[in-house]
Structures are given as structure tokens and as C-alpha cells.
Design brief:
The complex is a heterodimer of chains A (about 350) and B (about 210). Chain A has about 350 residues and is α/β, with parallel strands linked by helices. Chain A has two domains: about 1-30 and about 205-360; about 40-195, abc type-2 transporter like fold. Chain A has helices at about 1-30, 35-40, 60-70, 70-75, 85-95, 130-160, 165-185, 185-190, 200-205, 205-225, 235-240, 245-275, 285-305, 310-325, 340-345, 350-360, and strands at about 45-50, 75-80, 100, 120-125, 190-195. Chain A has a five-stranded mixed sheet with strand order 2-1-3-4-5, sandwiched between helices. Chain B has one domain (about 5-205): P-loop containing nucleotide triphosphate hydrolases (Rossmann fold, 3-Layer(aba) Sandwich). Chain B contains seven helices and nine strands. Chain B has helices at about 45-50, 80-85, 95-105, 125-135, 155-170, 180-185, 205-210; strands at about 5-15, 15-30, 30-35, 60-65, 65-70, 140-145, 175, 190-195, 195-200. In chain B, the strands form two sheets. A six-stranded mixed sheet of chain B has the order 5-6-7-3-8-9, with helices on both faces. In chain B, strands 2-1-4 form a three-stranded antiparallel sheet, with helices on one face. The two termini of chain B are about 30 Å apart. Classes of the chains: A alpha/beta (about 350), B alpha/beta (about 210). At the A-B interface, helix 1 and helix 11 of A face strand 5 and helix 2 of B.
């Protein structure tokens, strides 16, 4: 019987490939163009960001100037340089700025040392469409600011030293490069966010959409596979009983086959996503297994209970789609009303999406 | 009652509405039991209950032996060939299965003629033959046939009737739910199912008269 089922799985692969081509290509297109439709230039929604930089030196001025002139920033964010930290906080609290950046004193000189302080990025509660965009841009901007400063520092130190002694200059360059490298590698620890609970959920919109659509495709595959099941057929079960095969054995055999087929779909998606994302984790090929098993077992149970493939499709599309929508899996939560954002934390699919994203990208 | 192989005693069965009420049937070894009734009279439900697929609301069903159930739907897997479908249920090799299909009473079904054909490419008659052969490979003592002659051409009908006679001659017991008068000529007992209740028809009763 196991041989026959293995043969069936192989014969089912063309159907799975068609399914993958239909939904997988739609997913990949969405992912590839997510940035365009999420971060399109919109001059009507320029947001103000307050920024305090205590050390008025050339490095900082150049860094800020570079950031201000980035294509993605200049049409979206108006960076207002203010005199002190309190003004940044006031502007954010009063709603005059949608967010604020506070660079600590001696940020450049302390960089790479144990005394280094993080840049504070202050947000209001995420409740508007624009803020979601700003959150992401702000992160990019802060990142660039620090990286620019580090690069300038490296170049400046190198230029200063090379005029005196070439050999010692090379030594210092190596030393500074190491520091800069450490800084870049650890940049996430240099920026501390305030009022944002989940850094990943806020920033990695593209990754989150990819994870949730992948999960959606996996869940919807239950419908495609529903035609595979025979154990939900009374007559088939009667035939199995005649040969001494219990229904639970059929159930697990069919669940196992379903898991293999669903995993194949994930494998195809993974291969395609690897061409799009550099950050795809091979480890996700393992971490996805529990999710695949749960979907396969639940899908098999549903098909055994409901029996009719049409009814299975109504249930999977109906509940799956609405639950995914409410969990922010189809449309990012930041685009949704506040009520939905609050309700999402009670939705198990929300955590499933987070788990999926972490296993795929982090 | 010593050779009684299937005993159905005062069985009632409800499925949304009452389907069977106090049905009593007794089948002995070598019997061919015909179940006659209009559409929806509960013939298929009774066979399902004997096969153990449905629980009765009242009464008892005793089955002394293995029961193989062949229905209008079937337990075949469309994307596999006839031989793959047969191998699924038995540890026998292809050669051993072919030997069974050609050298025993199963040869009447002529399944060996289309053994490498996929089920989805088979006619209704082929599927019926294959379904019976598939069940017979597990050597059941009782064969439950639901509309075995439905949608079959004359040669196929003749082959199935010939096979039922052969199975009975070897001591097998057969239950047949059918509308076919031709089929009932081969039955040792005919039960009429009407309004959920059963009644043993005296031999020679015209079927059209029995159905009222």
C-alpha cells in the first residue's frame, strides 16, 4: 500500500506544479514589486522627522546631508534639525513630527568602544498609513547615517595618518576598518527603538508579506490535495478493513503523503525566493517542517470530516483567507484600522506568520 | 441456523430520517440474498450496515466471516493501473495476482485483459469487474453487491452473473441490492424493503407486483 501511495504522490506532482505556477508566480510578482506599491513616491504625504545631533562637526553635517538627499527620503521625509533632545520629544508628542532621531553626544568618537551609546529613534503609536512607510524609511535613514559617519571617520583618520608614516597609517587603517566593520555588523545594537514592540514586524514588510503569502499558499494546498484522499471514502475504508488496514493507519499514511506534497511546494517556493532574497535561510527548510506537518494533519482531518472536496475548498478559503487577513498576512496591519491591529494579537495566525518570517529570513 | 453467516435482527437505522425499521434477514452459507426495493428504500444503507460502515439505531447485525463490499461508487484509485490497485491490498506479486485472475473463478471477470490500464481510462463495466476482483483477492466469505449490473452491457452483465453463481457454488454468500429482474432469478431468497421494513417474498412472486 505504501508503494502505491508513493506512486500516487509522484503522479500528483504535475498538479502541484500547476498549483505552484498559478499561486507561486503571483506571490513572487507581489514580492518583487512590493517595494514599488508600498513605498511609491507620494509628495502629498511628506512626513516631518525631528533630528537632534549634538556634535556639530563635518562628519555629522555630511552624513545628514547625504541622508536628506537620498531619493527614497527626499520625497517622503522632511528632516528638521532641532536644538535639543527635549524639542525632539515635544515635536513627536505634539504630533508636529511623526518620529524623532536623537544622536548621542560623542557618537562618532565612541563608536566601536564599550562607551558607545545607541541612536534613539522615537515613534508615535503606529496608527496611520504614512507612519508605516516612515518607520521603514527611518530605519534605513538611521542606518545610513551611522554607516556614512563610520565611512567618513575611516577615510579621515586614514588621510590624517598617511601623511606621516605609511606603515603606521596602514596599521591604523586596519584597526579602524575593524572598528567600522564591527560597527556595521552590530549596527542593530547601536540603534535603540522606542515605542516599537517588534522590530521585525515593523520594518520587514517585504519579508513579512513573503512569509505570509508562502504560508497562505501552503494552507490553500489543502484544497488541491483534497482530491488525493481516499480514506475519507466509506467504500475505500470498507476495502481497507477487509485487508485488515485500520482507518487511523490510512489517516497517517495520507497525512504523510500530504506533508511530502506540501513540503515540495515549499521547496519550489524556496528555490524561487532564493533568487529574490539574499537573506533566505536554508535552515527554514527544517523549521518549516512542523508547520507543514500541522497543515497536513489538520488538512487531512478536515478532508476526513467534511469528505466533499468542494466543502473543503469553502472551508479552507473561507476560514484561511479571513484569518490570514485579520492577522495582517494579506495586507500589512499598519494599513488596517486600529481595531484590526489590536485584534491581531489574539489571532494565532499572527504568531504563525511571525514564526514563518523568522524561520525564512532571520 | 447452524450455517447462518449473516443475521440481521430487528435492525432500525436513522439517518436524518428513519431509513430502516425492524429489518430482519437471515443468510446462510451459499445463499444469494436479493434486496428489492424502490429508490431510497434503504437497500444500500442496509448493505453498508452489514459491511460495518453504519451504526444501527436498534437491533443487531451478526456477521460470521469477512464481508467484501462492492458499490456503485468504488474503492479504486483513478490514477493507478488495475494491477497497482490490486497490489495495494495484497502482498502477492504481479505474477501471483495474474495467476489468481486467470486460473481461479476470477477468470470469469476477465480483469487480466486490462491489467495495465489506468482506472480513469476504464469503462464502467471494467471498473465493476476490477472492483469485484479487488475485493475477492482478500478472500471474503460474504460479498455485498450494490447494483452490480447497473450501467453494464449484456456481456458484462452475463460475466458478473456467471461469477456470482460460481462464488455461490464455492460456498460464498452474496447479498445483492438491485432493480434488475434478471438478477433476482439467481437469488435464493428475495427480501422486499418497503417503507423501511423488510419482508421475505414467497418464491415466484412477480417483482412488479411486489413493488406495488
Amino acid at each position: 500500500m505504501i508503494k502505491a501511495y508513493c506512486k500516487r504522490v509522484l503522479l500528483f506532482l504535475p498538479y502541484l506544479a500547476c498549483y505552484f505556477l498559478a499561486l507561486g508566480i503571483a506571490l513572487l510578482s507581489l514580492v518583487m514589486f512590493a517595494s514599488e506599491f508600498l513605498f511609491e513616491d507620494n509628495k502629498d504625504t511628506i512626513a516631518t522627522v525631528a533630528c537632534y545631533v549634538p556634535d556639530d562637526d563635518a562628519y555629522n553635517r555630511l552624513g545628514i546631508s547625504l541622508v536628506k538627499n537620498m531619493d527614497s527620503i527626499k520625497n517622503t521625509i522632511d528632516i528638521k534639525i532641532v536644538k535639543d533632545e527635549a524639542t525632539v520629544v515635544d515635536m513627536v508628542e505634539d504630533g508636529d513630527a511623526i518620529a524623532g532621531i536623537i544622536v548621542p553626544e560623542n557618537f562618532i568618537s565612541a563608536m566601536g568602544t564599550p562607551d558607545a551609546s545607541p541612536v534613539h529613534v522615537i515613534y508615535r503609536d503606529a496608527d496611520t498609513f504614512e507612519e508605516h512607510i516612515v518607520n521603514d524609511l527611518l530605519y534605513a535613514m538611521s542606518d545610513l547615517l551611522g554607516t556614512t559617519q563610520a565611512s567618513i571617520l575611516t577615510a579621515g583618520e586614514y588621510a590624517k595618518e598617511i601623511g606621516f608614516d605609511a606603515s603606521s597609517a596602514y596599521g591604523i587603517e586596519r584597526e579602524i576598518q575593524d572598528e567600522s566593520l564591527s560597527y556595521v555588523l552590530n549596527r542593530k545594537t547601536l540603534f535603540r527603538k522606542i515605542d516599537v514592540d517588534d522590530l521585525v514586524a515593523k520594518y520587514a514588510v517585504k519579508e513579512q508579506l513573503t512569509a505570509s503569502y508562502t504560508l497562505y499558499i501552503i494552507m490553500m494546498s489543502v484544497f488541491v490535495i483534497s482530491f488525493f484522499y481516499k480514506g475519507n471514502n466509506d467504500i475505500f475504508r470498507a476495502r481497507a478493513k477487509l485487508s485488515g488496514i485500520k482507518t487511523w493507519k490510512l489517516f497517517f499514511l495520507e497525512s504523510g503523503c500530504a506533508a511530502v506534497m506540501i513540503y515540495t511546494i515549499y521547496l519550489l517556493l524556496f528555490i524561487c525566493l532564493c533568487f529574490i532574497f539574499d537573506s533566505m535561510k536554508v535552515l527554514s527548510l527544517i523549521t518549516v517542517i512542523p508547520v507543514v506537518l500541522i497543515v497536513a494533519l489538520a488538512g487531512t482531518a478536515l478532508c476526513y470530516l467534511v469528505k466533499s472536496p468542494a466543502a473543503v475548498s469553502y472551508i479552507t478559503f473561507g476560514t484561511g483567507t479571513s484569518m490570514m487577513y485579520l492577522a495582517g498576512g494579506l495586507i500589512p496591519l499598519d494599513y488596517m484600522p486600529h481595531f484590526f491591529q489590536t485584534a491581531a494579537v489574539y489571532n494565532p495566525f499572527y504568531y504563525l506568520i511571525q514564526f514563518f518570517m523568522r524561520s525564512m529570513f532571520l | 441456523m447452524a450455517d447462518s453467516i449473516v443475521t440481521v435482527e430487528n435492525v432500525s437505522l436513522k439517518y436524518k430520517k428513519t431509513v430502516l425499521t425492524n429489518v430482519t434477514i437471515n443468510a446462510e452459507k451459499g445463499d444469494v440474498i436479493g434486496l428489492l426495493g424502490l429508490n431510497g428504500s434503504g437497500k444500500s444503507t442496509l448493505l453498508s450496515a452489514i459491511a460495518g460502515l453504519r451504526k444501527t439505531s436498534a437491533g443487531t447485525i451478526k456477521v460470521n466471516g469477512k464481508a467484501g463490499f462492492v458499490t456503485q461508487e468504488n474503492a479504486l484509485i483513478d490514477e493507478l493501473t488495475a494491477i497497482d490497485n490490486l497490489k495495494m491490498w495484497t502482498p502477492l506479486s504481479r505474477q501471483e495476482i495474474v495467476k489468481e485472475l486467470t486460473e481461479t473463478e476470477l477468470s470469469i471477470l476477465k480483469v487480466n485483459d486490462f491489467i495495465d490500464l489506468k482506472v480513469k481510462r476504464m469503462s464502467g463495466g471494467m471498473k465493476k469487474r476490477l472492483a469485484i476482483a479487488s475485493v475477492l483477492l482478500s478472500k471474503p466469505d460474504i460479498l455485498l453487491l450494490d447494483e452490480p449490473l447497473a450501467a453494464l452491457d449484456i456481456p458484462a452483465k452475463n460475466d458478473i452473473i456467471k461469477f456470482i453463481d460460481s462464488f455461490r457454488a464455492k460456498g460464498g454468500t452474496v447479498f445483492i441490492a438491485s432493480h434488475s429482474e434478471e438478477m433476482f432469478k439467481h437469488c435464493s431468497k428475495i427480501y422486499l424493503l418497503k417503507n423501511g421494513a423488510s419482508a421475505l417474498l414467497p418464491s415466484g412472486t412477480p417483482l412488479s407486483e411486489a413493488l406495488g
